[in-house]
Amino acid sequence: MANILPTGCIEMASNELIVPVTDVIEEEDNENPSLEVELATFRRKWKDEIADGSYTPPLGGKQNIKNKEEEEQHRIEQEAKYLYLQGANAEKNGDLYKAIWYYRQAIQLVPDIECKIDDYVGNTVKLKTSSAQREARGSNDYEEEDDDIEDIVQGLHSLTISKLETHCQPNFTQTSTHISALPVEILVYIIQWVVSNQLDMRSLEQMAMVCRGFYVCARDPEIWKMSCISMWGVNCQLTKGYGSWREMFIGRPHLKTNGVYISKASYIRHGEQSLDTFYRPWHTVEYYRYIRAFPDGELQMITSPDSPYSVIPKLKTKSSKLAGIMQGHYRMHGDKVFAVFQKFDYTDKSVRRYRRNKNQVSETELTFHVELTVQDIGQRAQGKLTWDQYTCHTHYRSTGLTSTSDFELDMNKYPPFYFSRVKSYTATSDGPLVAPTSVKSA
Q1: DSSP structural state of residue 412
Q2: Are 374 and 255 in contact (CB under 8 A)?
Q3: What is the torsional sign of CA 253, 254, 259, 262?
Q4: Angstrom distance (rounded) from CA 73 to CA 116
Q5: Rounded-to-integer distance, Cα 146 and Cα 160, Å
Q6: What count of other Cβ atoms lies within 10 Å of the Cβ of residue 231?
Q7: pLDDT of 372
Q8: Which end of the chain is more exposed for a tag (fewer CB within 10 A), N or C?
Q9: Which long-range contacts (CB under 8 A, 24 or more apart) does 248-252 make?
Q10: For residue 95, which of 172, 207, 170, 175 has the smallest C-alpha distance?
C-alpha cells in the first residue's frame, strides 16, 4: 500500500529521509538575495506605469519593421534634400560641375526630389504657402508683386545706354578678363555682329535675357532703326501706330529671312494600262515650292520634287545654282509682297556642245510676277504666305512684243506657304548690321 505523504514533503528512495520543499527554496533564496530585490523593483515599476497610463505594450515584429522602413526613407529624403540644396548653392556660385554632381547624387536617392523641396537658397525663402494663410493676407501680396514687376519694367524702360555705368559685373572672381571690362560702345558693336546683315533678331532677343545691361544694349533704338531700314529701305519712317522702332519691326508685316517658306502640293497622275486591260494604276505625285527671302530685297523661288532636307541647305546663299531656280527682287506694301522673278538655266559647262549650238540664244525671255499676302498663323507672326496673283510675261526678242498669261490659282495646285526656321542660315555672321544707303522699296 502506497504511503501517503504530507503536502510539501519529498519521499526519497530509501523512505528514510524526508526534506520539506519550502526549506530548499528558502536556502536557494538566501544564497542569491539580489535576484529577489531586482524582481521586486521590477514589479513595483511595472505597477506604477500601469497606474500612470504610460505603459505601452511591445509592438509586433511587422510594426517594428514598418517603422524602421519609414525612418530610413525619411533619412534618405533628408539627405537628398541636403544634396540638392548644395547643388543649388553651387550653381548660384557659378560652379556648374560641382552643382551637376550634387544634383546627380540627390536624384539617385530620390528621383522626384525637386518636387519635395519648398526652398532653394539656404532654406530661408518659402515658395509655397497654405491656402489659409493666403486668404488671411488677402490680395495685398499679389498687388505688391504686380507693383514690383511694374516698377522693374518701368525702370528698365527708363534706362538708356548713356545712363549705364557698366553693362554687367562678374559674379565671381576670375583671373581672365571679364566681358564687363569692355566699353559699352564695343558691346553695342558686338550686338551688331550678332544681328548681322541677316537680321537675326531672335539671337538679339536671347542676348537681351542675359542681364540688365545686355537688355538695355539690345533695346538700343539705333539697332532697331537700322534693322527697319534694312528691311523696308531708307524711306522707312516711324509712324504713329508704333511706339518704337522695335514695335514697328515686330508688328509691321514683312518676310522672315532666317528660314524658308515651304509649300507642298500634290496631284494624281494616271499610270499605264496593263496588258490584260483590267488594271490601270494611279500615281500620287508630290512636289514643293520654296521661297527664300534676303534682307536686301532679293528673293529666290524654286519648284522641285526633292524633299526639304536636300533643297534647304542649297538655298543658304544667293549664289545657289539649283536647276530651275528663279531669282528676283521684292518689295513690301502693307501686308502685300510684290515680287518679280527671272528663270536662270545653269548648265554644266563641262559638257561638250556642238559648235552650231554653242552661241545659240533663246528667242524668248520669261519674267514672272508674283503677288502674295503675309499672314499670321496662330502665335507665329508672318508665318504664312497666300497666293493673290501669278502671271508670266513672255518677251519675244525677234519682234519685241510681250504677251502676258495668268495662272489659275487653284488651292490644290497653289497651296499657301508656311515658314520654317533654319538654324544654319544664322549660325555664322558674314558682316555686321549696317543701314543701307540706297532705296529698296517705297
Answers
A1: T
A2: yes
A3: positive
A4: 13
A5: 24
A6: 24
A7: 92
A8: N
A9: 248/224, 249/201, 249/224, 250/381, 252/228
A10: 172
Backbone angles phi, psi at 171, to 5 degrees: -80, -25
Q: List the single range of 145-154, 250-259, 395-404 with lowest mean pLDDT.
A: 145-154
Owner of C-alpha cell 508630290:
286
Three cell numbers, residue 71? 525612418
Q: What is the pLDDT of residues 9-26, one digit of tens each?
A: 444 444 444 444 444 444
Give the list of residues 6+ apart from residue 330 with CB closer than 8 angstroms, or none: 255, 293, 297, 298, 299, 337, 338, 339, 340
Q: Which residues contact 256 (CB under 8 A, 6 or more apart)?
A: 293, 382, 383, 419, 421
H or E segment and range at residue 406: strand 402-406
By C-alpha distance, which of 104, 109, 102, 108 is closest to 73?
Answer: 109
- Residue 291's pLDDT is what? 92
Give CA–CA dist 171/96, Å, rounded: 13
For residues 56 and 417, what is the distance between their CA atoms, to the nearest angstrom?
79
Contact 309, 324 (CB under 8 A): no
Q: H or E element: which one contains 89?
A: helix 61-92
Question: Cell triple for residue 397?
Answer: 526678242
CB 207 within 8 A of CB 416: no
Half-sphere exposure in the Cβ direction for 179 (13 Å, CA): 13
